[in-house]
Amino acid sequence: MADSRTVKQQMAKLLRQPVECLADEARLIDVVADSLVLVETVIELQEHFGVRLVQDDVRSVVTVGELARLFSGERRSSTSCP
Amino acid sequence: MRFQIDENELWLLSFYRTSEIGGALFFGRLARSMKEGPNQADMTRHFADEAQHAWYWTDCIERLGAHPLKLTDGYQDQYASTAGLPVNLMEVLALTQVFEGRVINQYARHQRAPGIHATVAETLGRIMEDEKWHLEWVRRALGEMEPEYGRERIDETIRRFREADEQVYRQTVNEHEQRIAHLTTVLARAREEDPDGR
Fold first, then answer.
1. Which CATH number fits the domain that encloses residue B178?
2. Does B92 fall in a domain?
3. Which of A24, B60, B67, B93 would you label with B137, given CA atoms 20 to 30 Å apart?
């Protein structure tokens, strides 16, 4: 299972931003260009980490740290893909 | 060249153009990141269609002697705050099915507007042909996802996005009432004839 730091590194790669710009407390709407980029990023992270999310998992996610923790398994209700 | 459309119609056609651009950018990004397979090919064709439709509207507006207005948000930008963002491909396709249905209905009703300019009618007709294929491939792809997500979850997701779509559509109509007044009579009549909007 990936740790939060690894997830953030992958996010940084997808968003073409230095990982230092992705502070845990940064709001996602402030670090992505628009909502479509966020959708694409979340889908790509699932592909990369072999995790499947549903909308309930992300409904209350606001910050970078909260999103990263979903992929490190700390807040997720769904299960990893086999 | 003299303008052949009024300010409100120019706004509406520009709104269509902006929404098509939004769709093209979205599906283009998804097509780039999708795994190999039939859905990747269909998503790529879908993205190419949406980009082509944006060009059709641009060309249509130019042929009517005007330039497209620069608008910030298309119709689909309003979904996020109403229904939440889709988080997997199944949810993206469920949203797409609802959205494409709305587009076809809107374009069909616009085509029936009294006094519609022939160039606008022709553009609507060309685009609607493609939109029918969009609905077909999305419906097929969702069917193929049943073993993975379950029919119940897919239906529930479509239902959720349909409710959001109703809300977004009402908001859009209310917000731009004056601009689309020339269509509302047609829409009201269409609703009487077909209450389910099919």
1. 1.20.1260.10
2. yes
3. B60
* Complete domains list, chain A, with CATH: 4-71 (1.10.1200.10)
| B127 Cβ contact partners less than 8 Å away, ≥ 6 residues apart | B53, B56, B107
| Of A40, A52, A59, Cβ closest to residue B33 | A40
pTM score, whole prediction: 0.81
Q: Which of residues 95-134 of B touch A (CB under 8 A)?
A: none
Distance from the Cα of A21 to chain B's closest Cα (Å) equals 23
User: For B171-195, how does the pLDDT look when each residue is reduced to its tens digit (9 = 90+)?
Assistant: 887 877 777 776 666 555 555 665 5
Domain that residue B77 falls in: 7-193
B77: contact with A, CB 8 A cutoff: yes
Q: Does B22 touch chain A (CB under 8 A)?
A: yes
**ipTM field:** 0.74
Residue B2 lies in a domain: no
Give A63's strand partners. A27
Which residue from B minimizes the CA distance to A36? B26
B25 shares contact with chain A (CB less than 8 Å): yes
Decide: B26 and B100 in contact? Cβ < 8 Å.
Answer: no
Residue with tokens 């651009």: B21
